[in-house]
């Protein structure tokens, strides 16, 4: 066998490389079984659709747990920061009808950002502890301030402030935040299917 | 007894020289300019740099061993040395895929931090470079695996230093034309100059 291979170099090359490929393929196949990860891809997709404010207004400690809960069959309309557009996106992903936002969990507002009136801040660090995204800078007995880029506008810091020096300011639409709104999907109708026309229009 | 001890000492000395040589003198990134892609790509955050270093060191050591076995047992006896490159690439791809599965199973967080750079270890030139240089230098099994490990440690050392510097550079007051990639390139060049200074060490 070895002699045949050493004499016929073409055959040797073919056999050895194909053999290596098969060997590694087999090993990887075995490893894929052995190290299999049971992940729920739908949770990842849902988590990507959620706005990642980690505000907890849905009643869950963050966006990922809420995504997990939606995957387990929870209602999809509990996310005020995401608003109707997020609900629609999730409804499309899960192929269910899109309900309107559940008022219990808050209303959809224009995007805001927290602002600390720095003269009034006493440096109690309570808002820093409340902030889910670490967007507030400051130390004990020193003035705090908000990193605008990091702030998700969840207003969790407003409540704990003992001197009420935090305002939620609306973000003005400027060139960096402005987005095209996605146009509505057109229905392609065929003139003869009158029942379909009726369904899509109602 | 004395002869055995001196033999042992000699081997230890040899291993130390291999390690120093692969970590500092022939550093794969800064002296041989191999593996620059992850060096620039994953060095923005210290945390992900450490993860990437560990993964790359693991892959480098494993490929150095596996490619030695493939070279010595399959390619050399059959006279297929000209197939080294492609055979080694096969080995590397398999090892990287295995590492990916292993990390996905053991540390989902690290898996998410590394993201696309994990499969990109396949195209890290340092990995193929180590395998090919080992084969060219006719090292034995112990030496080549040690060389691979040293190359990995050298890569880690440089990557971690560089990412720590880049984290500071991100907060530093840099003239606008030099911000971002430009100052990173300059820093890498200066580091490379510093590492060239090791060239007379052994």
Helix-strand pattern of chain B, N to C? HHHHHHHH
Strand elements of chain B, count? 0
Helix percentage range of chain A: 25-40%
Strand order of the largest sheet of chain A: 1-4
Helix content of chain B: over 70%
CATH superfamily of the largest domain in chain A: Electron transport complex subunit B, putative Fe-S cluster
Q: What is the tally of helical segments of chain A?
A: 7
Low-confidence spans of chain A: none
Structural class of chain A: mainly alpha
Please count the beta strands of chain A (DSSP E, at least 2 residues each): 4
CATH topology of the largest domain in chain A: 3-methyladenine DNA Glycosylase II, Chain A, domain 3
Mean pLDDT of chain B: 87
Report the structural category of chain B: mainly alpha
Order of helices and strands of chain A: HHHHHEHEEEH
List the helices and strands and how they pair.
The complex is a heterodimer of chains A (202) and B (202).
Chain A: H1 2-7, H2 9-34, H3 41-49, H4 63-71, H5 83-94, E1 112-116, H6 126-130, E2 136-137, E3 145-146, E4 166-170, H7 194-201
Antiparallel strand pairs in A: 1-4, 2-3
Helix pairs in contact in A: 3-4
Chain B: H1 2-25, H2 36-41, H3 46-78, H4 84-106, H5 108-114, H6 125-137, H7 141-171, H8 181-196
Helix pairs in contact in B: 1-7, 3-4, 3-6, 3-7, 4-5, 4-6, 6-7, 7-8
């Amino acid at each position: 066998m070895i002699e045949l291979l050493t004499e016929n170099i073409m055959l040797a090359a073919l056999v050895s490389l194909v053999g290596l490929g098969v060997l590694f393929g087999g090993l990887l196949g075995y490893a894929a079984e052995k190290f299999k990860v049971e992940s729920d891809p739908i949770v990842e997709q849902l988590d990507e659709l959620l706005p990642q404010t980690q505000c907890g207004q849905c009643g869950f400690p963050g966006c990922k747990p809420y995504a997990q809960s939606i995957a387990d069959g929870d209602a999809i309309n509990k996310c005020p920061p995401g608003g109707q557009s997020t609900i629609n996106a999730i409804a499309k992903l899960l192929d269910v009808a899109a309900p309107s936002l559940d008022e219990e969990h808050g209303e959809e507002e224009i995007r805001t950002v927290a602002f600390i009136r720095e003269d009034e801040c006493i440096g109690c660090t309570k808002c820093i502890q409340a902030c889910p995204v670490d967007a507030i800078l400051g130390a004990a007995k020193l003035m705090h301030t908000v990193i605008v880029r990091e702030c998700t506008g969840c207003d969790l810091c407003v409540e704990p402030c003992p001197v009420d020096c935090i305002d939620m300011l609306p973000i003005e639409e400027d060139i960096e935040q402005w987005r095209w709104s996605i146009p509505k999907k057109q229905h392609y109708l065929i003139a003869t299917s009158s029942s379909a026309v009726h369904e899509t229009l109602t | 007894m004395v002869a055995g001890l001196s033999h042992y000492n000699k081997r230890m000395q040899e291993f130390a020289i291999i390690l120093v040589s692969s970590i500092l003198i022939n550093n794969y990134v800064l002296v041989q300019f191999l593996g620059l892609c992850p060096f620039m790509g994953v060095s923005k955050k210290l945390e992900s740099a450490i993860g990437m270093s560990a993964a790359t060191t693991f892959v480098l050591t494993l490929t150095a061993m596996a490619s030695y076995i493939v070279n010595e047992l399959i390619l050399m006896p059959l006279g297929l040395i000209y197939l080294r490159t492609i055979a080694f690439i096969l080995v590397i791809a398999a090892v990287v895929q295995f590492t990916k599965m292993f990390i996905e199973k053991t540390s989902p967080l690290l898996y998410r931090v590394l993201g696309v750079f994990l499969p990109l270890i396949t195209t890290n030139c340092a990995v193929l470079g180590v395998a090919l240089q080992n084969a060219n230098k006719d090292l034995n099994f112990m030496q080549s695996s040690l060389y691979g490990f040293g190359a990995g440690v050298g890569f880690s050392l440089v990557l971690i230093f560089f990412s720590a510097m880049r984290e500071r550079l991100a907060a530093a007051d840099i003239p606008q034309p030099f911000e971002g990639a430009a100052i990173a390139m300059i820093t890498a060049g200066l580091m490379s100059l510093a590492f060239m200074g090791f060239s007379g060490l052994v």
